[in-house]
Amino acid sequence: MEINDISINNKKSSKQKDNISNWSKISNKYILLQIFEHLNKKIYLKTIKYNKKIQNILEISLNDFKKYSEIEIEIIPNENRTEKKGPFININNNEEESYYHIYYNDNKKETKIKNKNIITRNVEKIKVIIDYRVKSIEGLFLNCNCIKSINFIKFNRSNINNMNYMFSGCSKLKEINLFNFNTNNVNNMSYMFCRCESLEELNLSNFNTENVIQMTQMFLYCSSLKEINLSNFNTNNVTCMSRMFHGCNSLIKLNISNFNTDKVNNI
User: Fold this and answer.
1) How do strand 3-7 and strand 47-50 relate by DSSP bridges?
2) Complete edge-to-edge strand list for the sheet that includes strand 175-177
3) Chain segment 148-159, per-residue pLDDT in tens
4) Rounded mean pLDDT of the chain?
5) What is the pTM for the complete model shown?
6) CA 244 to CA 6: how far, in whole Å?
7) Nearest Cα to 50, choosing from 16, 71, 25?
8) Distance in angstroms (rounded) separating the CA atoms of residues 212 and 237
9) Does the pLDDT value for residue 115 go beyond 70?
């Protein structure tokens, strides 16, 4: 059974009672208890989405709906159409390939595409939707030299654990919006921005790195990078920082006064 967009209004209407009656049919009693608890406290939710994909997960709370939501990525290709381009996304795990849905906007018409490595002419935007089952996005944009801008519209999901090589080799990438990133459980950020040669600024102030172990060559050869905001970096568990800033020839200032290197064995 799937129930979508059940609305709860502040007024206890007959429609609301009907909705509550429908909820009694949901097999996951834990969700029911959470909903009724909110009703009793008069904390009325505008919308509750119940997704059959996560119906069998035990003891799921209302807060988990954010964690298991889809990731949506907006990609703007490089304006130079004449040069040879690489892929615009890499799906390294064949078992998870069905969890990725890719669309391109050509002359304001959105079309789903199957071949993830081809960019046709006149494509202005590409939309990638990744559902909750993907845990590793290692090398997702590896050597994608066709990309100018990446915007993560939804990234409030804490089950991602690996970002190794995520943007490595995105040599034409100039803008990247990481504001919504949830990195709470990520343990590997090695080579994450390696050879992002066109990036001039990188704000990572919202990154939670308390579980990260590897930062090897994280910013290697980011030759245009003038400033990196690492003010909230927690390096308590990091063991390797080898060549972390090697080749960052344009850096004007770098504040790493909050770095804890007690566990680092290679720097």
Assistant:
1) antiparallel
2) 109-113, 100-106, 123-130, 71-77, 147-154, 175-177
3) 999 988 776 777
4) 76
5) 0.72
6) 48
7) 25
8) 6
9) no
Structure tokens at 72: 């949506």
Determine the distance from the C-alpha atom of residue 51 to the mean position of all C-alpha atoms in its chain, rounded to a whole number.
Answer: 20
Instruction: Write down the residue that tokens 């997960």 correspond to.
Output: 57
Counting beta carbons within 10 angstroms of the beta carbon of residue 203, is it exposed (0 to 12), middle (13 to 18) or buried (19 or more)? middle
Summarize pLDDT for 47-85 with one digit per residue, the tens: 334 444 444 444 445 555 555 567 888 888 887 655 667
Q: Which two tokens stand for residue 26?
A: 């949901």
Question: Residue 195: is its pLDDT beyond 80?
Answer: yes
The Cα 141–Cα 163 span in angstroms is 10
Does 137 score more than 60 pLDDT?
yes
Q: What percent of the chain has pLDDT over 90?
A: 33
Token pair for residue 125?
Answer: 């935007």
For residue 257, what are its two tokens?
């006064």
Length of the chain: 267
Amino acid at 224: S
E strands, the chain, in order: 3-7, 47-50, 71-77, 100-106, 109-113, 123-130, 147-154, 175-177, 201-203, 227-229
- Output the CA angle 173-176-180, nearest 5 degrees: 155
* Residue 136, strand partner residues: 162
Crossing angle of helices 14-23/29-40, nearest 10°? 150
106: CB partners within 8 A, 6+ apart: 120, 122, 123, 124
Pairwise CA distance, residues 112 & 144, whole Å: 20
The C-alpha atoms of residue 95 and residue 116 are separated, in whole angstroms, by 15
Query: What is the SS3 assignment for 235?
Result: coil
